[in-house]
Design brief:
- The structure holds two protein chains of two kinds.
- In chain A, strands 3-4-5-8-7 form a five-stranded antiparallel β-sheet, with no helix packed on it.
- In chain A, 58% of the residues lie in helices and 10% in strands.
- By secondary structure, chain A is an alpha+beta fold.
- Among the domains of chain A are: 167 residues; 106 residues, Immunoglobulin-like (Sandwich), CATH 2.60.40.
- Chain B is of the alpha+beta class.
- Chain B is built from seven helices and seven strands.
- In chain B, the strands form two sheets. In chain B, strands 2-1-5-4-3 form a five-stranded antiparallel β-sheet, with helices on both faces. A two-stranded antiparallel ribbon of chain B has the order 6-7.
- In chain B, helix 6 packs antiparallel against helix 7.
- The chains are: A alpha+beta, B alpha+beta.
- The interface between A and B is large, with 133 and 102 residues.
Chain lengths: 745, 213
């Protein structure tokens, strides 16, 4: 019986087992037989026994007794035994096992074997599971092979070198000269490996970056040849010539062109060529285009090229292929953070893309303006009586209603210049003018009688607020920030803003003074970032985003892997407000929970009393936000206290916010939190707001932590606090076993 | 339990007197400045600091619709228990996906790229910076190689000839990266290796058969 049938016979028998128990029995018998065979002297069936063992291992059964057999087989002189031996080594021996060191010598010998297939086995194994010691031992061999004449071996040696550099970055120096010369190879496999090696070397060591920047023209040429060459059957994938190599070269160009004008210039033409000539009807072409876009956005490219890149992503958004839409969404999100203006023109497409999946969007459009009007009216007439949360809530509403920005800012401006007594109105107006000042200055707005507003007018209005004795410190803060934001939205009076900001640097109000000093710094030391820092704010995520408007608006989002709240809030928010508003006209208690079927909150008059209606009028804006979640003090010692608050709790995740405050006489510095959770829980720490907690409760440090878990019962957390108080370094630990639920969960 | 610390904030942010102290602002302004901080960190992070990457492809799994593993190739060093746990989690996650969903999943700090071919799921875990579309192409190339080798490959071929599936994979991908971009060359190399194997085995079994070993 031919031995290979033995293996397949065993597989057949195992698969024929009707129960788990039967399968276990078969496997135990086979393993016993295999073990016995291993112990015997050299016999012909060794490789097949090992193959059987590897199959059993893949089913999940223990196979450690095969490790030594792997070592033995690798040392054999027969190719068939080496082949399965090396496979066994890759499956059963990882670098954590001691036995893996035993094969180092065999690998070393096989690297210089006369047969290239044996060399190949050794290279493959080294690159797959080579430990740091093995890599150190064998690096010189690899370096020698990089210069070997055979392209079959060179391409493998290059990737082996990549593995070595990842394990021991310092050894990179050894491969740098060879990597360079490999670029002149014609063989695609070798080129591919060389490009990956150079990429790895450049990422590990900035000195290599400088050196390999000189190769940019060479890389550009290789790329050009690929793009303009005719049909090459060997490397063609859906009309693209070797997309794998193209993508790797583009990635390397990205790293070389980053933060370097000269290198970026050298690749500009090529990138434009690839971007315009690549056919993206199939995935291969799209992959190349995608990599091109990423490269364009990351290097110092001309603005024309960047617009081209964003347009490509915009086109991807409309692609039929779901995968392509997904990657365009994720890249646009990344780009929005760094290159906002380029993305602006596509915001419409992005919203459209989301719109057609969500019918609830259409519902809110007509009533938003009426909603804003009503609230403004309330602010004007009863602004002094509304709750503190009114201002942020209204601002959130306004940011969400993007079509109404122009109308809103005009209305608010007019309200501001007529009267600055109502502080909440003043604050909202200042914020809007700061944010949408450019729309105000444009003059026309279809829903409102036109009024010419000059930059001076706007600055006058804001300065009036700043100087008036009627303005509270908060309002003055808003006004100053608004003035600062305008510095990126106006063209002629930036100097006026600069002088206002510097004057307030010596203001007697500490809050204003601090702001002015910091904004001054933004003009001076961080001027290059001023535009990015002061640009339009994204739609603000509310704490209480647990209020969903029913599944349809949530479900499609999941397909895009839950894009950040920016887009999500855009759809969900306004619908929430509408139904709260409907409730106003009715009289039932301000809804803390928005139910799935929001038609049920339509006006009903059974419980109506006049006082209720009165409450509701004033609670109009208060009702938009449920009572804040309770916070629990989890740690208190020597004046330092740590509070915990849970927001956004779902069945499988919670957002926890820690607030640290300090009631001692001196500041606490170097405040740092670390957290640990049980294995069933996953933890993600967000950046803390700072590491200094001012004395006497003058300020706090907050930090958000995201937790996700399968079983809420298992949720526990240990927090370690380290800080310096009054000159001494302290470290404390607290265990948190129960988490407070938010009021409305 | 392992201690997890805060993400490293860019030094520029901490050094700058701009953000050294918590400003007494209401929610809106604080969010605005937080966005600003994020932008500052991002701009500084992208300005020339060296970034370290892990291996591009961390592992590849092939499994059936019932969740039975048919091939597992790991390019990172992990213990057996860790590998089992990860495989279980990833298989569960991918099997839970509906047919209309896209081929990309975010999981821990990796991206899972998967595609179903007949009764088999082909699933790769790549690091976050990777181009997902080219990973899909890599998966497709591997399937094409299997198809060419076995002639209209099906799941049973991979079950009964699992070691050959590994050999083919090892001739296409090395250390987590594609080593050869030409289908023809990969298939040729496997053909030659197979011949070598046959030569190595043949004399032995002949001798065995006539009872001379």
């Amino acid at each position: 019986m031919s031995p290979s049938v033995c293996l397949q016979e065993m597989i057949r028998v195992i698969r024929g087992a009707r129960t788990q128990g039967e399968e276990r029995g078969v496997i135990q018998r086979e393993c016993a037989a295999i073990r016995a065979q291993f112990r015997q002297a050299d016999n012909g069936g060794r490789s097949h026994n090992l193959a059987k063992l590897l199959y059993v291992h893949m089913l999940g059964y223990p196979a450690h007794f095969g490790q030594m057999e792997c070592v033995r087989l690798i040392a054999s002189s027969k190719y068939s035994e080496k082949r399965i031996g090396y496979l066994g080594a890759m499956m059963l021996l990882d670098e954590k096992q001691d036995a893996s060191l035993l094969i180092t010598n065999s690998i070393k010998n096989d690297l210089s074997h006369s047969s290239q297939h044996v060399q190949s086995l050794a290279l493959c194994t080294l690159a797959c599971m080579g430990s740091a010691e093995m890599c150190r031992d064998l690096a010189p061999e690899i370096e020698r092979l990089l210069k070997a004449s055979n392209s079959y071996i060179k391409k493998k040696a290059a990737l082996c070198a990549v593995h070595i550099v990842r394990k021991i970055p310092e050894l990179g120096e050894m491969f740098t000269p060879s990597a360079h010369s490999l670029l002149s190879e014609k063989n695609h496999g070798v080129l591919h490996g060389a490009v990956i090696l150079i990429t790895e070397l450049c990422e590990r060591n900035p000195d290599n970056l400088k050196q390999f920047r000189k190769s940019v023209p060479e890389l550009v040429q290789i790329m050009k040849n690929l793009v303009t060459s005719g049909y090459s059957p060997e490397h063609n994938v859906a009309g693209i010539s070797d997309p794998f190599l193209q993508v790797r070269i583009l990635r390397l160009l990205r790293i070389l062109g980053r933060n370097n004008d000269a290198a970026s210039d050298a690749m500009n033409d090529l990138l434009a060529q690839v971007a315009t000539n690549t056919d993206s009807s199939k995935t291969a072409g799209s992959a190349v285009l995608y990599e091109t876009v990423l490269t364009i956005m990351d290097i110092r490219s001309e603005s024309g090229l960047r617009v081209l890149a964003v347009n490509i992503l915009g086109r991807f958004l409309l692609n039929n292929d779901r995968n392509i839409r997904y990657i365009s969404m994720t890249s646009l999100q990344k780009i929005v953070q760094t290159d906002h203006t380029a993305v602006q023109r596509h915001r419409g497409t992005i919203v459209d893309c989301l719109k057609d999946q969500d019918a609830s969007v259409k519902r809110y459009a007509p009533s938003q303006r009426w909603h804003i009007d009503t609230i403004l009216h309330v602010l004007v007439t009863a602004g002094g009586d509304v709750r503190d949360e009114t201002v942020p809530n209204l601002i959130q509403l306004i940011t969400a209603a993007s079509e109404l920005h122009c109308y809103t800012v005009h209305k608010l401006y007019r309200a501001l210049i007529s009267d600055i007594v109502q502080q909440s109105l003043v604050q909202v107006a200042c914020w809007c003018i700061g944010e949408y000042g450019d729309l105000l200055l444009k003059g026309e707005c279809e829903e409102i009688t036109p009024m010419q507003v000059t930059e001076d007018d706007v600055l006058d209005a804001l300065e009036t607020v700043l100087q008036s004795h009627m303005s509270t410190p908060t309002s003055r803060g808003f006004a100053l920030t608004a003035i600062m934001k305008l510095s990126t939205r106006i063209t002629n009076n930036v100097d006026r803003i600069r002088s206002v900001v510097s004057i307030y640097g010596s203001c007697i109000d500490v809050e204003l003074q601090q702001r002015a000093v910091e904004y001054n710094a933004l003009f001076k030391k961080y001027d290059h970032m001023r535009a990015a820092v002061l640009e339009r704010m994204p739609v603000i995520d509310r704490n209480s985003s647990g209020q969903t408007n029913g599944d349809p608006s949530v479900e499609p989002m999941k397909e895009f892997n839950q894009p950040k709240p920016v887009q999500g809030v855009l759809i969900q928010e306004p619908a929430n407000q509408v139904c709260d508003l409907l409730d106003l006209l009715g009289d039932s208690n301000p809804p803390l929970l928005v139910t799935n079927d929001h038609t049920s909150t339509a006006p009903n008059s059974t419980n109506s009393t006049s006082s209720n209606v009165q409450d509701n009028l004033l609670d109009l804006l208060g009702g938009l936000e449920p009572t804040p979640a309770p916070s629990v003090t989890v740690f208190e010692k020597g004046g330092l206290s740590l509070k915990l608050q849970c927001d956004q709790q779902t069945e499988t995740s919670t957002t926890v916010t820690f607030t640290a405050s300090n009631s001692t006489q001196s500041d606490i510095t170097g405040f740092n939190l670390q957290a640990a959770v049980p294995k069933s829980v996953q933890l993600q720490m967000k950046a803390p707001s700072g590491d200094l907690i001012p004395a006497q409760g003058c300020g706090t440090v907050t930090q958000t932590v995201l937790l996700s878990y399968t079983n809420k019962a298992n949720l526990k957390m240990r927090v370690r606090l380290s800080y310096s108080s009054q000159g001494t370094a302290c470290q404390d630990m607290v265990q948190i076993d129960s988490f407070p639920s938010p009021a409305w969960s | 339990m392992e201690w997890v610390g805060s993400p490293k904030i860019n030094q520029l942010w901490w050094d700058s007197s701009l953000w050294g102290r918590e400003l007494k602002l209401n929610t809106c302004e604080r969010s605005h400045l937080y966005c600003a901080r994020v932008k500052i960190s991002l701009t500084a992070v992208y300005s020339g600091t060296v970034r370290t990457y892990q291996d591009n492809m961390q592992f590849m799994l092939l499994f059936s619709r019932q969740g039975k593993l048919r091939l597992q190739k790991w390019y990172v060093a992990l213990s057996d228990t860790q590998k089992k746990k990860i495989s279980r989690e990833v298989i569960q996650m991918v099997l839970a996906r509906k047919p209309k969903m896209c081929s990309f999943l975010e999981w821990r700090d990796l991206k899972i790229v998967y595609k179903r071919y007949a009764s088999l799921y082909f699933c790769c875990a790549v690091e976050d910076q990777e181009n997902e579309l080219i990973t899909l192409e890599i998966i497709h190339r591997y399937v094409e190689l299997l198809d060419k080798y076995f002639g209209s490959v099906c799941e049973l071929d991979i079950i009964f000839n699992f070691e050959k599936a590994y050999y083919i994979l090892d001739e296409f991908i090395l250390g987590g990266e594609a080593q050869e971009t030409s289908k023809k060359i990969v298939l040729k190399a496997i053909e030659q290796a197979d011949m070598l194997q046959e030569e190595a085995e043949a004399p032995r079994s002949v001798l065995e058969e006539i009872g001379l070993t």
